[in-house]
Structures are given as structure tokens and as C-alpha cells.
Design a protein that fits this description.
Distance between the termini: 83 Å
Radius of gyration: 26 Å
Number of strands: 0
CATH topology: c-terminal domain of poly(a) binding protein
CATH superfamily: Ribosomal protein L20, C-terminal domain
Oligomer: single chain
Strand content: under 5%
Structural class: mainly alpha
Number of domains: 1
Largest sheet: none
Order of helices and strands: HHHHHH
Number of helices: 6
Shape: rod-shaped
CATH architecture: Orthogonal Bundle
Length: about 110
């Protein structure tokens, strides 16, 4: 008995079309171009999830450095002082303190000196 494959193909094509919603015309309408676009988009998504972590760490370090220089020290001296003083606070929280809680950041800088 012959098996007609229309249902399977249609389902597969619909999956591609759903994933390409919001893309430009040819990527949306052509299944072949759409599959390529989805593959590339997923590659970029994976790469950029890694890069987001890198970018935020750079931002935190820049904020910490700017706030540290207001208290007559540098980023590297501050981090070194915190390690020697056994103050375990990560850079994300340190940058939040630098931006939103200047008094508590000043206390941390004094502890590091």
C-alpha cells in the first residue's frame, strides 16, 4: 500500500513557518530559506547567550572602577583589597551597591583599604 507523505511534510513546513514568524518576506514564505534562517538564528542565539555574560561583567567592572575612583582607589586595588580582607562579594552586587547605595559601597572600600 502506498503511503502519501503530504501530512508529514505539511507539519514539518508549518513548524518552520512558525519559527520564522517576524522574519523578512523570503525567509517567511520559502521553506528552504526559512530553514536556513532558523538554523542561523539558533546559532546566533547560542553565541549571544555566552556573550551576554561577558558584556554584563564588563559593565559591572566599569561601574565598580568608576565608583572606586571617586574614593581615591582603582578597580584592581579594590578587588585585591577585598580578597585580602576576605570579603566575598561578587561583582554584580558590588556594582549595584556602587550605583544605588553609595554609602554602603564607601564602607566596603574602607574595609578593602
Amino acid at each position: 500500500m502506498r503511503v502519501k507523505r503530504g501530512v508529514t511534510s505539511h507539519k514539518r513546513h508549518q513548524k518552520i513557518r512558525k519559527a520564522t514568524k517576524g522574519m523578512s518576506k523570503s525567509n517567511r514564505s520559502s521553506v528552504r530559506r526559512g530553514r536556513q534562517a532558523v538554523t542561523k538564528a539558533l546559532q546566533h542565539a547560542t553565541r549571544d547567550r555566552k556573550n551576554r555574560k561577558r558584556t554584563f561583567r564588563q559593565l559591572w567592572n566599569a561601574r565598580i572602577n568608576a565608583a572606586a575612583r571617586l574614593h581615591d582607589t582603582t578597580y584592581s586595588q579594590l578587588i585585591s583589597g577585598l580578597k585580602k580582607a576576605n570579603v566575598s562579594i561578587d561583582r554584580k552586587i558590588l556594582s549595584e551597591l556602587a550605583v544605588n547605595e553609595p554609602k554602603s559601597f564607601e564602607a566596603i572600600v574602607k574595609a578593602a583599604k
